[in-house]
Specification:
Length: about 1250
């Protein structure tokens, strides 16, 4: 294509029109006459499986943007005609937000296909609404009134449109065919007909509306007689057949309406098929003016040359100036095409004057190329201080170009001499680097990153391409369901099935063949995607926003915003013909790009790997050493040819004499934001639509700046080491090369950070306006769909996008300034990595937060946040390392602490930071405790306790809390020694007692009785004993569950309390006897057969343990006390009101006398021993102690009887041996079938 050279001052930014969430699209069925429509949130239906179905379902046949004049929230509406002209899709297209956001998309489905040329809108002055007027192919006129809530709340359309939707069948359509619709105001419409006439509709009010909602008035070009003669076939004038209708030459191809400031009348301008412009008085229906649109005299014999095609609906634009005046711009498609400017004056009496502004000048717009056929499809006109500004849109199949011309009306000789400026259309196809052994990632991953880059392809495009690809393979099934699998998984599955890993000729796996085959399949799928996606970019209209000064291109499935080029954009896009002031910078940029373009894919990959090391690794080396290391790592030097070097020298001069410090300063100035507006307060924040424009522009700018700066880094290193001789004046002898190198690295590091944010997608919850709190299944499913998929750049920094205060520059320049500031190394928008990571952690995306770690700072709080990231990923060890590293910095008190964490830390947690090491470690302990990482809870609890100063009352609570957490954590993971130490350190007795019980129970339940007995429990042994006694008393089944009796027995034995050990064995013995364990051999069935020892029962074993324990006690203390339960006989029971001394029962009243007798007996024995010389003083003391204990027992027994507690009795060692023997005799008797009967036993019936 031989393109003409136009200076590029603007560039477009394309946006996907795919909704961010499934629930944001609401389908509303427009009911036929007499019916009511219903609405429903959209669900992903079956995608089109061929190109025709794809075009029908997803590509619009007509699209534009309507801007309201009287109401501004919302103000702009993007409308599209879809699905074989049966759906009118409406959405808000405001960039700036005045009030509440309006995120919903309304898809109005009509019962009959609508006429795309008969869609109009109006903005009522009296109330806030959007009036939609549509004429369908059944000649129904639809009037739909939409309120702002229809675009904000799904509930507004849940019951259908109701009275907001009305239809009318105009009688005038019975013998006339509508062609164009023009809206004068909400109460008045005009529809041009096929015969050149117009049909005016005035809305009826009050009683007049009974016969219909509109009043019709028909006006014709030549009166009724001419119109009726036109119905007779043989008397018709020349016509043009269009859409199966014979159009009269006076029929309007394009229309425009203006009031020129008059409130009681309007003027309809029509460009007719006969190449004439007619001006109608809307009020009277009279034609006020008729003239050729080029103001030339035509040869009557050349009628065909001066004919306008009926499909050309964009041939006239009107710019209102002052009251009674307007500027009309017309375009003639005849020949090469030509514009005309008309100055029109009119008054409210119906007179009008039309004058050619430039009668001697011809404005013939140049096409983008001299070889291809380009058609001017649309144009827009704006009024600038210097004069009218003209924007044109050219089309060639699905390609389009946009040009701009600033008209200079004061220059009479050459008003169009300023020259046409071009808009850079981003139609370059992204390419994937070839795969090879040098690739660090899998081939599929590379392609997925390319295909699923945010905003590149729509989901419907991917699904259709996959279906067509499967059809080509012969594996497609119409009933094939991919429910439960993402589109990425489906693509990988289908393409992966086409490749197999075979063996090579040597017998090993042929990885090269596998890689090449996989690359071929991915490339096929990629080309299919590009062919489908190309159709989405077909331009349909060019729209100018009169308030914001923004130019938009509405495409089949895209919307493109035209914005101002930055200075670096202008240099890059105009490299062959740069401005004089930027010639040297352009030469430097061109040399770098040309030098890197010669690199192979492997060299590119290796150079990028070397750059990643420079971006993310801290280095203590000098600048020269860093550059040398980068050169060695990149390894491109051996592959650089003499021709490559010669090209650089030709551009930059011998020995690169053009390269100076000033030249690099000029380059860095081009990537630095010159406006400080971005640092001001926002006057109007951007809407979700506006934020998407910014994000897409940032994505484009990142790639452009990265390409330029990366090539400059490579070129700088090459030039520095290319000159070896000092006599040749190397770069380092002329300026500080290391400084330039560092600045390039810093700029690339920020671009890499932004690139990650611009390509990473998040799922965030959408605002649910008007939603109820019900938890019904329908609302639950809807809440799952209410997730917006946005980029991390929008989600994390989108609140910073907007129009700043004191800034009146056009929006197309404002967006560029904002984007340039975001990408600049010295940006006023600080990308605080720690804050971004906090937000990601709040969104429960620690995996994404981890990817930001290479960009994190090294200050204390950043290190702490990195620890939180690893903690969320349950990498506790790495998190512990970062928490320790940040400890000192976050323990020092700081005045005016900036408490920003995106909600990750609450006020309580903030109060623990910068308030000493104990508080900091206490905070870390609570973090680990939430995840039940008890070993780390112990670690940081010990650290916190280590720095607690004794006597400091302010942190006394921290000590108690840390001891509590330390004890709980140690107990949970069975670190009982640590728990024991924490327990002994507790000052709160109540808390200590509670935790002591918990520790004892835990150790008993986990079978750690041996460790329990080894722990000293200094000062707490009695409490431990009491707790175990309580557990033994509460135990009913001593054979199952926790063996508290055995544990207490071991506890007392380890503390030399043999009598106490015997006492607890006696309690267990009694419970065994009551459970009937005396008749069970070895705990078995009790049959006594086989090898079972009949005398070996739980009871007999218990007797042996009891006797052994009591045998370890001094003879005079070899007794224990036993509770006497009701029903016990002399051998083990008896009356509760009696005690048994020395193995027998005694009356409680004679207890004192028995004690006296026992004392006398002991005295006598002691006297005899003294006479014999065998009595020692120690034995006398023991006897005295025994008498004292027995007296205390007597007092306790009296008190127990007063409380109705079971009586107690003495059991001496001899008594226990006797009972043991009796138990053995009983078992032997039973084994010998010797059973004893009492009188109370029932007689057995032997009959």
């Amino acid at each position: 294509m031989a393109s003409r050279d136009f200076e590029i001052l603007y560039k477009e930014t394309r946006l996907n029109l795919e909704p961010a969430s499934q629930s944001s699209t609401v389908h509303v069925r427009v009911p036929p006459q007499g019916a009511y429509g219903r609405s429903s949130s959209s669900r992903s239906g079956p995608s089109a499986d061929d190109e025709k179905g794809y075009r029908s379902k997803n590509l619009a046949t007509a699209s534009s943007i309507y801007y309201r004049k009287h109401n501004n929230s919302p103000r702009g509406f993007l409308w599209r005609v879809l699905d074989n002209d049966t759906v009118l899709s409406l959405r808000v297209a405001d960039v700036c937000k005045q009030q509440k956001e309006a995120p919903l998309i309304l898809n109005l489905r009509f019962p009959t296909a609508i006429r795309p040329s008969c869609v109009g809108f109006a903005d009522p002055e009296d109330y806030d609404a959007l009036c939609v007027f549509v004429v369908d192919h059944s000649n129904q006129l639809w009037t739909i009134t939409l309120r702002p809530d229809h675009f904000r709340k799904r509930t507004a359309t849940e019951g259908g449109l109701g009275d907001a939707c009305q239809s009318y069948s105009p009688p005038g359509f019975g013998f006339k065919h509508p062609h164009r619709l023009a809206v004068v105001n909400p109460e008045q419409l005009i529809i041009t007909m096929h015969d050149g006439g117009i049909l005016k509709f005035d809305r009826k009010k009050g009683p007049e509306s009974n016969g219909g909602s509109w009043k019709e008035t028909i006006y014709n070009v030549a009166g009724w007689g001419q119109s009726l003669r036109g119905l007779v076939p043989f008397q018709r004038n020349q016509t043009i057949k269009y859409d199966k209708i014979n159009m009269e030459m006076t029929a309007a191809a394009s229309t425009a309406v203006t009031t020129m400031g008059h409130s009681d009348t309007g003027f309809l301008f029509t460009i007719c098929l006969d190449h004439r412009m007619r001006v109608w008085d809307v009020r009277t229906g009279q034609i006020l003016y008729t003239g050729d649109i080029l103001n030339t005299r035509r040869d009557p014999q050349e009628v065909g040359k001066w004919t306008v095609d009926p499909s050309q609906g964009n041939l006239i634009r009107i710019l209102d100036n002052t009251r009674g005046q307007c500027l009309v711009l017309t375009y003639s498609p005849a020949g090469s095409g030509e514009f005309k400017f008309w100055k029109v004056k009119a008054n409210d009496q119906g007179s009008i004057h039309v004058a050619d502004c430039f009668p001697d000048a011809h404005l013939v717009p140049p096409s983008p190329s001299s070889l291809d056929v380009w058609t001017l499809a649309d144009f827009a006109a704006t009024q600038q201080p210097g004069g009218p500004e003209l924007w044109t849109m050219w089309k060639n199949n699905t390609s389009y170009r946009v040009h701009r011309l600033q008209v200079q009306p004061r220059d009479v000789t050459d008003p169009f001499g300023d020259g046409w400026k071009a808009v850079h259309i981003e139609n370059t196809v992204p390419t994937a680097r070839a795969s090879g052994p040098w690739n660090p990632t899998d081939s599929a991953e590379k392609w997925l990153d390319l295909i699923f880059f945010p905003g590149r392809f729509s989901k419907s495009t991917l699904e259709t391409a996959l279906a067509m690809y499967e059809k080509g393979l012969g594996t497609y099934k119409e009933t094939n369901s991919r429910v439960g699998r993402s589109i990425a998984e489906s693509i990988c599955s289908v393409l992966g099935s086409t490749t197999t890993l075979d063996r090579s000729s040597t017998g090993g796996a042929d990885y090269d063949q596998f890689r090449n085959t996989s690359e071929t399949q991915w490339m096929r799928f990629w080309r299919l995607l590009l062919e489908l996606d190309k159709q989405r970019g077909e331009a349909l209209s060019l729209v100018f926003d009169p308030l914001e000064g923004m130019i938009w291109v509405a495409c089949a499935d895209l919307i493109a915003a035209v914005r101002q080029c930055s200075e670096l954009d202008s240099v890059y896009h105009n490299l062959p013909s740069s401005e004089k002031k930027n010639e040297d910078v352009a030469a430097l940029v061109s040399a770098g790009l040309t030098f890197v373009e010669s690199f192979s894919d492997s060299m590119h990959q290796q150079s990028r790997a070397a750059l990643r090391a420079e971006l993310y690794e801290d280095s203590a080396q000098s600048d020269s050493e860093r550059m040398q290391l980068f050169l060695d790592r990149a390894g491109f030097w051996p592959s650089v040819t003499d021709e490559d070097c010669a090209q650089v020298i030709d551009t930059l001069g011998q020995n690169y004499q053009m390269v100076t410090a000033r030249l690099y300063e000029d380059l860095f100035d081009l990537i630095t934001a010159t406006s400080e507006a971005n640092s001001q307060e926002l006057r109007e924040p951007f809407t979700g639509f506006g934020r998407r424009v910014v994000v897409r522009a940032v994505q484009e700018t990142i790639e452009l700046h990265w390409q330029i700066l990366f090539s400059q880094l490579i070129l700088l290193v090459h030039m520095e080491f290319d000159i070896d001789s000092e006599d040749a004046s190397p770069l380092h002898s002329r300026f500080e090369v290391g400084s330039v190198y560092r600045r390039l690295i810093d700029a690339l590091r920020r671009l890499e950070h932004l690139r990650w944010m611009a390509k990473t997608e998040l799922n965030v919850s959408a605002s649910k306006s008007g939603g109820s709190g019900s938890s019904s299944p329908a609302l639950t499913k809807r809440s799952q769909d209410d997730n917006n998929t946005i980029t991390a750049l929008e989600g994390l920094t989108g609140h910073l996008f907007g129009l700043p205060e004191s800034n009146n520059i056009p929006l197309l320049s404002n967006i560029t300034d904002l984007v340039l500031d975001l990408c600049a190394p010295s940006s006023t928008t600080v990308l605080s990595t720690w804050l971004l990571q906090c937000r990601l952690l709040k969104l429960d995306r620690p995996d994404l937060a981890l990817e930001l770690n290479p960009f994190a700072d090294q200050d204390a709080f950043s290190t702490y946040v990195q620890g939180r990231v690893f903690l969320a990923l349950r990498d506790h060890d790495t998190a512990s390392f970062h928490f320790r590293k940040a400890a000192i910095g976050l323990s020092i008190s700081i005045k005016n602490l900036d408490r920003h964490s995106a909600g990750l830390l609450d006020d309580t947690e903030w109060n623990l930071l910068n308030s000493g090491l104990p508080n900091y470690y206490a905070h870390i302990v609570s973090l680990y405790d939430r995840q039940k990482a008890y070993s780390y809870v112990m670690e940081f609890s010990r650290l916190a306790l280590q720095f607690v100063q004794p006597g400091n009352q302010e942190i006394a609570g921290i000590k108690t809390e840390m001891l509590s957490r330390l004890f709980t954590a140690a107990t949970s993971i069975s670190h009982f020694e640590e728990a024991h130490s924490a327990l002994l350190s507790m000052d709160d007795e109540a808390l200590q007692r509670s935790y002591l019980r918990k520790l004892v129970e835990k150790m008993c339940e986990t079978g750690q009785s041996s460790e329990l007995t080894r722990l000293p429990f200094a000062g707490l042994q009695t409490k431990v004993d009491d707790m175990l006694v309580d557990k033994c008393r509460a135990t009913r089944d001593v054979l199952n569950g926790v063996p508290y009796h055995q544990i207490l027995y071991a506890w007392r034995i380890s503390h030399n309390d043999y009598r106490g050990a015997a006492a607890i064995l006696l309690d267990r013995l009694q419970k065994l006897r009551r459970a009937g364990e005396g008749d069970r051999v070895n705990g078995g069935t009790g049959t006594g057969t086989g090898t079972d020892d009949a005398l070996d029962t739980h009871v007999t074993r218990q007797y042996l343990l009891l006797i052994n324990a009591l045998s370890c006690v001094a003879p005079q203390e070899a007794y224990i006390l036993e509770d006497v339960l009701p029903g016990d006989d002399g051998d083990g029971g008896g009356d509760s009101g009696q005690q048994k001394g020395a193995g027998g029962l005694v009356d409680d009243d004679n207890l004192e006398s028995h004690l006296e007798e026992l004392a006398k007996k002991l005295d006598a024995e002691a006297a005899a021993a003294r006479d014999g010389g065998a009595m020692q003083p120690e034995e006398e003391d023991e006897d005295a102690a025994l008498i004292e204990k027995m007296q205390k027992f007597s007092t306790a027994t009296t008190a127990r009887n007063g409380q109705n507690l079971p009586a107690r009795r003495f059991l001496m060692l001899a008594d226990l041996r006797k009972q043991y023997q009796q138990e053995l005799d009983r078992i032997v008797a039973i084994q010998n079938n010797q059973f004893g009967f009492t009188a109370e036993d029932d007689l057995m019936d032997l009959a």
